[in-house]
Amino acid sequence: MAAIFYGGFYMLLEPVAGSFLFPILLAWTAFSKSLTITSPAPTNKIAIAINLVSWLAQFYGHIVHEGRAPALLDNLVQALVLAPFFVFMEILFTLGYRPELQKRVKAAVQKELQKLKSLDASKTTKSN
């Protein structure tokens, strides 16, 4: 059910990319379900380990290299629903997908980063 929700939502956001990602999500869901049925104990242990390492890596990357907490702490929906699609879009952009959209996305990201930097600077000024 989650794969259908994610895929459908991604198709609404960006029809071509979402249509490409939707069958991938369905295939991974079917594959993970079959692994869970045939070998539940090791599959669940591996899935938990991958999730744990991924979350730790995300927190490490954001805190150490960006100097801020991950979006998970600000907006759960953005972190769990939009971030995976953003990563997929970044991969497509690297492959040359819709350069005009890439420019618009990069401009919007830069604008948001400037807002965050201004907000951080004002917090630092107020605390001093």
Automatic annotation (TrEMBL):
Ranges annotated as spanning the membrane: 12-31, 43-64, 76-97
Keyword set, alphabetical order: Membrane, Transmembrane, Transmembrane helix
InterPro entries, per database record: Mpo1-like
UniProt-listed GO biological process terms: sphingoid catabolic process
Database matches in Pfam families: Mpo1-like
Any one GO cellular component localisation term in the record: endoplasmic reticulum
Name this protein carries in UniProt: Bgt-2884
Species of origin: Blumeria graminis f. sp. tritici
Lineage: Eukaryota, Fungi, Dikarya, Ascomycota, Pezizomycotina
